[in-house]
Amino acid sequence: MLISCDTNTKSKVAIIGAGMVGMSYAYSLLNQGTVKEIVLIDINKERAEGEAMDLNHGLSFAPRKMKIYAGEYSDCKDADIAVITAGVSQKDGETRIDLLNKNAAIMKNVVGEVMKSSFHGIILVASNPVDILTYVCWKASGLPPSKVIGSGTSLDTARLRFEIAQKINISVKNIHAYIMGEHGDSEFVCWSKAFIGVKPLGDVIETLKEIEFKDLEEIYNSVKNSAYEIIKRKKASYYGIGMTLVSITSAILNNENKIIPISVCNGGTYDTVKDLYIGLPAVLNEDGVHHVVKIKLDNKEQEQLNYSATTLKEILDQMDY
Ligand code: NAD
């Protein structure tokens, strides 16, 4: 008798935006064998076709059989997750708000097409500014907030864990710390709840010579500026976010109940602006967001969260969406 090793029977992903981020995600899905089917959708159909051909040539070495193809929005109808990585970058002379309105218009169009296909899965947004565009996506989709999420501060958190791990020479897997708030300049570290294994980071700092309290600000700045530093050197960042999106995907498809700081609708778990998408830790499973995890923030962190939420709200208030 043949015993199937496939635990996740649900596993089709539609990627909208076959650019650097979309394809780094697709390549990581292929290497990790996370899904059974990937459809690539892009306004530039030839690009999506070329990418699908290239990925298919790696199938001989992949951990499982997969169906990978360039498709149409109608192919979203039976997708479990639609991942939106489409976007345009800033042109010379264009203001940030012009760019925001342009990307919001793209988002509304993309979501409209996805929903027209009778899609009934979960939408995951990575396009920037991710908190704003996830909100636009939620409004345009008509889906409940548990089914629309953004990558939020998940990549920033992975960067934070890497920086701390490097500093103290402990496995990144034993670093438990979150970046919260906007995926952007107003994000903050919830230092009061940072742990190394089961030890509070503060206790570790008191016993290790490799790290001092004054290093925390440097670590935060390095994380916050890492996108700028990468873009300065190679124009865009994509591998880190590609792998982060895979981790979110497997939490959903494998019903993992995994805690990830994603862009999620604050329905009131945190005492700050409500009905706004912002980076908060949430339990993810096959239903999408099971619940937002309430962390007791200290006074400074609460102020930082309020500042971040107000910043996002002010941007939304200036936009036409
Ligand atoms: P890219 O330019 O390489 O790819 C964007 C793709 O979107 C292109 O293939 C383009 O043809 C496609 N596209 C544009 N308009 C479209 C539309 N209307 N419908 C379908 N496809 C469309 O850009 P990239 O480097 O892949 O970045 C994509 C997005 O991801 C950007 O917004 C970027 O800022 C963001 N990003 C997010 C994170 C994060 O942590 N959330 C990290 C890195 C990048």
Descriptive report:
The chain folds into 2 domains: 12-150, Rossmann fold (3-Layer(aba) Sandwich), CATH 3.40.50.720; 154-318, Lactate dehydrogenase/glycoside hydrolase, family 4, C-terminal (L-2-Hydroxyisocaproate Dehydrogenase, Chain A, domain 2), CATH 3.90.110.10. Helix 3 (96-116) runs parallel beside helix 4 (130-141) and helix 5 (154-168) crosses helix 7. It is globular and about 55 Å long. It is 42% helix and 18% strand. It is α/β, with parallel strands linked by helices. It has a 6-stranded parallel sheet with strand order 3-2-1-4-5-6, with helices on both faces. It has a 3-stranded antiparallel sheet with strand order 7-10-11. The protein binds nicotinamide-adenine-dinucleotide. Nicotinamide-adenine-dinucleotide (NAD) is lined by residues 16-22, 42-44, 47, 85-88, 106, 109-110, 126-128, 130, 151, 155, 183, 236-238, 241.
Number of strands: 14
**Domain count:** 2
Helical percent range? 40-55%
Strand content: 15-25%
Ligands (ions, cofactors included): nicotinamide-adenine-dinucleotide
Q: SSE order in H/E notation?
A: EHEHEEHEHEHEEEEEHHHHEEEH
Please report the first level of CATH classification, the CATH class of the largest domain: Alpha Beta
CATH homology superfamily name of the largest domain: Lactate dehydrogenase/glycoside hydrolase, family 4, C-terminal
Low-pLDDT parts are 1-6
**Class by helix and strand content?**
alpha/beta
Biggest sheet character: 6 strands, parallel
Proper CATH architecture of the largest domain: Alpha-Beta Complex
Shape: globular
Mean pLDDT: 94
Strand order of the largest sheet: 3-2-1-4-5-6
Write down the Rg.
20 Å
Q: Provide the CATH topology of the largest domain.
A: L-2-Hydroxyisocaproate Dehydrogenase, Chain A, domain 2
Alpha-carbon distance between the termini?
56 Å
